[in-house]
Write a structure and sequence with these properties.
The protein is of the alpha/beta class and 225 residues long. It has one domain (6-224): Acetylglutamate kinase-like (Carbamate kinase, 3-Layer(aba) Sandwich). 44% of the residues lie in helices and 15% in strands. The protein contains nine helices and seven strands, in the order βααβαααβαββααβαβ. The protein has a seven-stranded mixed sheet with strand order 3-2-1-4-6-7-5, sandwiched between helices. It is globular and about 40 Å long. 42% of the residues are buried. Residues 176-182 have low confidence and may be disordered.
């Protein structure tokens, strides 16, 4: 990675389930990396909190669009938490539209975004921002080390793939084993990174992995065009 390459960072919502110290550590890592790379935007997932509220609302009889809105709301709360942790480095509030996020990025502050609209994953939001902001790299920090050829929970001999094409990842995600594993990359997000040829790296969401990736280390899985 070259000095001041533009990066979009997607953080799994489970980071925020781990408590304030983990969020502070992530913020320190991001602040340190800004000396070398341009982290134009960070997208936060909803995590367990979103799933809990969605299940609560479902039991109350909420329709699907309302459930999507609740998930979006929680992801925006997580975005606000990271903004607080980043302090003056961050744009002061989470944008709620793609246009607003792109405009906010022009301020030079790190833009932290949650969900933007019902029915659209935060992975898709990250891909759209990478496309609109001409990012050199999209980093998707998830709950796994990267993309495996088979489910590592069921197959101890599953292999971590260092590189995978967008077409091959689509096949893996649509297969029986990985169906619904959208923390890796959902179909819309994959379509966006494929059409715009956005280099995308899937890594585990840890301070060490984020730091190494932003400094150009080859870890996790790289999705190539």
């Amino acid at each position: 990675m070259r000095l001041k390459d533009r990066v979009i960072l997607k953080l799994t919502g489970s980071l925020f389930d781990r408590g304030a110290e983990e969020v502070k550590a992530a913020a320190r890592t991001i602040a340190d990396a800004l000396k070398e790379v341009d982290i134009a935007a960070i997208v936060t997932g909803g995590g367990e909190a979103a799933r809990r509220y969605i299940e609560y609302a479902k039991n109350l009889g909420a329709d699907q669009s309302t459930l999507d809105e609740i998930g979006t709301d929680v992801s925006r709360i997580n975005a606000k938490l990271l903004i607080v942790a980043l302090g003056r480095l961050a744009y002061p509030y989470p944008p709620t539209t793609l246009e607003e996020a792109v405009k906010a990025a022009s301020t030079g502050k790190v833009v932290v975004v949650g969900g933007l609209q019902p029915g659209q994953s935060t992975n898709a939001v990250a891909a759209l921002l990478a496309e609109r902001l001409s990012a050199s790299l999209l980093v998707n920090a998830t709950d796994v080390e990267g993309v495996y050829d088979r489910d590592p929970k069921r197959h101890p001999d599953a292999k971590l793939l260092k590189e995978v094409s967008a077409a091959e990842l689509r096949r893996i995600l649509e297969g029986e084993v990985f169906a619904g594993t959208y923390d890796l990359m959902d179909p819309l997000a994959l379509k966006i990174i494929e059409r715009s040829k956005i280099p995308t790296r899937i890594i585990r969401c840890s301070v060490e992995a984020i730091s190494d990736t932003l400094r150009g280390r080859d870890i996790g899985t790289l999705i190539v065009g």
